[in-house]
Design a protein that fits this description.
alpha+beta; 24% helix; 7-stranded mixed beta sheet; 6-stranded mixed beta sheet; 27 strands; 8 helices
């Protein structure tokens, strides 16, 4: 008996594409679906809304969750920058599904996020979709590990083909253009998450000896900028070209380990360098005492990293389906084909129903802590 279904339909008529994808996906499930996730890519925000409403109408009594995107994943393929709708559905009779909607309110001198439901003892994961232009996703996700007692959060930041004005969120029959939405999923059937960051380390591991906020000032007692120059000089010509196109920095998840190799880091972007101050600007907070190592990324490294992590996950789990949140900087930009990540998941894990979208930032746990990422592929896997 099939518990999952996924389908992707393209076309200038988004409502028609939504209907075809929804009916195809729902028809694959034996019985009634309890959860329907869908993702809509289209040039006209109002047509995106109509397409989303059509999917929610056809979902019957299922809880629905979806968003706009610049590309969608489903039916074993990925489609970017054209009219397309992806629908993924699941029959989860022994699973609790609790929708939530998050908004921000002014609380004295800062913004507070309201609307998050407290996880119950059966809850295994929270799926979250957010508007990246006005919701403090990174700050909120950073706090969820402690606030939700270690509950994994996985998902992505929505986008649209017209940027900020075209972001739409869909949850349980409602449409919103701000905040964040999601569902708590509890009970049997949730296997876990895979987060592939697609980087490999270069140069030595170094201790942070001076830092302020997201400014990395000293590494091993030397100015961080000087250490960066030293690294670049030591790289091969190939790695120097990769570093020139986008260097990253990895923060070791366990600074007490004897060695720190690929997969041992939380990868963050290197956003700027100040030779006068001797500082590097990191895309996250950095603390004295942490261990870091510079990182490079290319298609081959990203391919190898995803295959390795999926293989390791598959060795311990039998996967029936998954929700896949891939960065919009992957797909055709990185691999010259939009379906790279979904084909890898289906080839290595064998899950027949894999749906998702190309996100403007991906959400997933690394080292047991929830983070917002870039250039990653985040998978939430379900048992068959």
């Amino acid at each position: 008996m099939a518990r999952f279904g996924d389908a992707l339909a393209t076309g200038a008529d988004l409502v028609n594409a939504a209907e075809r994808a929804a009916l195809d996906s729902l028809d694959q499930v034996d019985g009634t679906a309890e959860l329907v996730c869908f993702f809509v890519c289209g040039a006209d925000p109002e047509e995106v809304v109509l397409a989303g409403k059509r999917v929610m109408d056809l979902a019957g009594g299922a809880i629905t969750l979806g968003c706009s995107a610049t590309g969608v994943i489903g039916g074993g393929r990925g489609v970017e920058s054209q009219g397309a709708v992806s629908v993924w559905c699941a029959r989860l009779p022994k699973v609790d599904i609790t929708p939530f909607r998050l908004d921000t309110v002014v609380d004295e001198d800062h913004l507070a996020v309201v609307g998050m439901r407290e996880p119950g003892p059966r809850d295994r994961v929270a799926i979250m979709l957010a508007n990246p232009y006005e919701f403090p996703t990174q700050a909120f996700v950073r706090e969820t590990t402690a606030a939700l007692d270690g509950l994994p959060v996985v998902g992505g930041m929505a986008d649209g083909m017209r940027g900020e004005e075209s972001v739409r969120l869909f949850c349980d029959g409602d449409v919103a253009d701000n905040g964040a939405i999601g569902v708590l999923v509890g009970g049997e059937g949730v296997l876990g998450t895979v987060v592939s960051q697609g980087c490999r380390p270069v140069g030595p591991s170094m201790a942070v000896t001076k830092a302020e906020g997201n400014l990395l000032l000293e590494l091993a007692g030397v100015s961080a900028y000087a250490k960066l120059e030293e690294l670049v000089e030591s790289l091969s010509e190939e790695d120097r070209e990769l570093a020139a196109s986008g260097l990253h920095i990895g923060v070791a998840m366990d600074e007490y380990a004897d060695r720190h190799e690929q997969g041992d880091f939380l990868v963050r972007s290197l956003e700027g360098a100040d030779p006068e101050l001797g500082a590097l600007t990191i895309g996250d907070m950095i603390e004295v005492g942490q261990t870091v190592r510079f990182q490079v990324r290319d298609a081959s490294t990203a391919d190898d990293d995803l295959a390795r992590m999926l293989t390791e996950f598959g060795a311990e789990n039998t996967v029936g389906a998954g929700l896949l949140f891939s960065c919009n900087g992957r797909g055709g930009v990185m691999f010259a084909r939009a379906d790279h990540d979904v084909l890898a998941v289906r080839r290595i894990l064998g899950g027949s129903a894999v749906g998702g979208f190309f996100a403007a930032g991906e959400i997933g746990p690394v080292g047991g802590v929830n983070h917002v990422h870039t250039y990653t592929a985040c998978l939430l896997a379900f048992a068959p």
